[in-house]
Structures are given as C-alpha cells and as structure tokens.
Amino acid sequence: MINIPKGTKDILPNESYKWQFIEQEFRKICAEYNAKEIRTPTFEHTELFLRGVGDSTDIVNKEMYTFLDKGERSLTLKPEGTASVVRSFVENGLFNEMMPQKFFYITPAFRYEKPQSGRLREHHQCGVEFVGSANAEMDFEVISLLYNFLINVGLKNLKIHINSIGCEHCSKNYKLALKEYFKDKIQFMCNDCKRRYEQNPLRILDCKEDKCREISLNAPKILNFLCEDCQLHFEKLKKLLKENNIEFEVDENIIRGLDYYTKTVFEVVNSNNMALCGGGRYDNLIESLGGPSVASVGFGQGIERLLIELEKQNVEIKDENQLDCFVIKAGLENSIDVEICSLLRKSGFSADYDLIGRSVKNNFKYANKINAKFVIIVGEEEFKNKQIKMKNMQTGEEQLVEINELVSALKGK
Ligand code: HAM
Fold it and tell me: What is the predicted pLDDT for the residue at 28?
C-alpha cells in the first residue's frame, strides 16, 4: 500500500462539505467587499520567494519545496500566496489599471515543517491582497473583511491582534537596537538565531526555541521606534477599528515571519496562541519585484486551522449536500428510475437510484443511511397509473403523486 506523504491530508466527503462552506463564505464576503479572484500557478521560480518572502526567513531557509525541473530551472511549490499575486500583478501590467485593486485567492501552500495539529506540509489558505493605497482605510477594509468573514463562519471570542513594525526607516533603527540588546546574549542562543543576528535580527523574535524566546522577552519593542508617519498610520487604523466596533488588541510581539511587511501587521490567534490567520501591509514588495511603488495590504487565513478551531468551539457546519430524492423501482424491468432521476436532475433536484441491484428493502436502508430527504417508489401498480409514491424520510409521511406533478409536489415541500 502506498501511503499519503507526511504532513498532507485527504479531505474525504464526510469533511469536504465543511471546506465548501468555508470557501463559499469566503467568496461571498469577498464579493461584498468588491474583491475579485486571482489564480496563480502552484509553483513559481524560486527567485520569487527568495526576493519576495526574504532569504532570512524560516520559510525560505528551511521550509521550501524546491526542485530542479528537467530544464534545470529552480522551481518552488508556493509556500504562501502573496508573492505570486504580486508577481502576477507586475507581470501582467495591472499597475496600469485603476487603483485600488482587490484580489482574493484560495490556494494550497507548501512548507516543509514538522507536522503536528494545525501544522501541515501542504496547507490551504484563503487570502486577500488589496493593492494601491497607502491609507489606513485600506488596512481597515482588509481587517474588516477578515473580521466579518470569521464572524460569518461562526468563530467565537474573536480578537484581532495588531501591531506596527514601521517603515524601512523605523525598522533600521529598531534592528540596531535589537543588535545592541542581543550583543552579549547571542552566544547563549540557538545557531539559527546566531545566523539571524547577522542576517536580520528581527527574525530572532520569530524563534520557537524556549531559551531564545525567554531571552527575547525583554528585547526592545518596535512601537517605541516608529516614526511620526507610521505612528499616525497606526493611530488612524486603531481609531477606525474602534469606531466600527471591531475588537482588537495591540500586541507588540507580532512581527510576522515574512520579510515583506511594513507598518501594520496583524494576526488572529487561538487560545493556545497559535495563529489562525496572519497578514499585514507591504508597501515595498511590488517595487522590489520589479513593479512601480504601490502600497498594499492583505492576509492569509489557513483553512485547516480555521476548521480545527471551529470544531474546538463546537460550531456546527451543516452538510448542505443532502440528497433530495432516492428513486426505487419495485418489480419493474424498465428504466423508469433513470427517467425519473433525469427529470428531477433537470429540474434542479439531486437524485440517485440503485446501481447495484439491491432489494427494495435494502434500497430503503441505503436511502436512510445516506440521509436522502425523499424516497420515490415506482411499483407495477404506480407505473401503470403513471404515478409514484413519495416518502418523506424525516416524517415518514407518504403521498401518491402523478409523475408529471412530481416536480411541483417536491417544490412545494
Ligand atoms: P502566514 O502567517 O505565513 O502568512 O500564513 C497565513 C496562515 O496560513 C497562518 O496564519 C496559518 O493559518 C496558515 N498556515 C501557515 N503555515 C501553515 C502550516 N504549515 N500548516 C497549516 N496552516 C498554516 C502568509 O502566508 C502571508 N502570505 C499572509 C499575507 C497575505 N500577508 C499579506 N498578505
């Protein structure tokens, strides 16, 4: 037997309806906010993520699925969605069109991580990227979309954690302060942190090692290093969130694990402090990937983590794919069951019939097991009279109906 690769998951029919629900709700909220879908390839040139996500990040250093194709090109399965959207925005000259532009996507993402609950090697994200405004109103719109989406799917105790990591000027000073702080401590930290100290000391704050986290606790906080412009931006965003009753908390520890962020960063975390969702502003990424300077902000919501959290919170997701009608013919050799199914399907009902030659009794059992709403029975007598018997499987109520009135009878239910 060949097993599924470690860190990946099958989504079986007894679960896929939950994914459909999340995706439908996401599409719905994106339409409400006037965001349009963008689809980008599953793999990209490795260079995109080196430059986009940043070569000091764990994603690029340790987690990318990178391979040479038969033409010796280095390609990488996308570890996240933003860099691809930006690549596409630049490559297709979308910057020539009116701003802002609002994109959304639902995509798989691949990271070579140590698998555990909520941490997979292939996960899925629904995300948005709003492109073309440096104003805090656009950060607000993105957070508001996320907030309402999470409310709509039923998430409780929702609080968005926000922070600002400033612009390149603020972070230059902040990185100097971090270097100073860690100067006499780095010798006690892990090898990755030693590399981070040289490459980008901000990334030390991402370290998951207990001893490194402990040392980082008293590190200088970015909010004390914001320039006036970044401070005003952050104040404006907080004001907008407050005015619109979106609950948030300022969390100075959020710095995010990707290099492209500027100013606003945010996460939704669960009670175990695991990020359910992450996002932020990235005002320099488009330019650094060869486009003009266009300010942007977005988020990525992990679908697996969201579903785990909804289940933990006992939020029930209904399976809307319940079969409308199971058609059973009794004692007949013709294809009346096929004809009735075809009629029902053309009229917008889901319908099915026996494909393996069960007895009537076993067909009832089957219809019951698959939770069909109605069983439609045609026996010799009914067939002769151009009628069917319709049984409501929930109430047990039976009704004799003319075949040509079946559809309207069902519509009335
Ligand atoms: P991220 O925080 O790296 O941000 O990932 C976004 C979300 O994807 C996480 O909050 C989590 O729900 C989910 N996720 C990440 N890694 C895994 C994993 N190994 N297993 C399961 N779920 C995972 C980004 O990817 C950015 N592109 C978000 C963004 C969009 N920022 C601006 N625009």
Answer: 98
Our mutation pick for probing the ligand 1 site, out of 123, 254, 263, 284, counting the most ligand atoms within 8 A of Cβ, is 123
Q: Which residue has the higher pLDDT, 159 or 94?
A: 94
Q: Which residue type occupies 172?
A: K
HSE-up (13 A, CA, CB side) for residue 219? 31
Specify the residue with its C-alpha closest to ligand 1, atom 18.
Answer: 119
pLDDT category at 273 given cuts 50, 70, 90 is confident
Element (H, E) at 236: helix 228-243
| DSSP class of 272 | T
Ligand 1 pocket list (CB less than 6 A): 80-82, 111, 113, 118-120, 123, 125, 127, 129, 257-258, 275-280, 298-300, 302, 304-305
Rounded CA separation 309/312 (Å): 5
Is residue 23 scored above 90 in pLDDT? Answer: yes
Q: Mean pLDDT score of the chain, rounded to an integer?
A: 96
Q: For residue 3, what are its two tokens?
A: 């097993």
Of 87, 103, 92, nearest in space to 41 by CA: 87
Is the pTM here over 0.70, yes or no?
yes
Q: What is the CA(145)–ligand 1 centre distance, in A? A: 17
H or E element at residue 336: helix 336-346
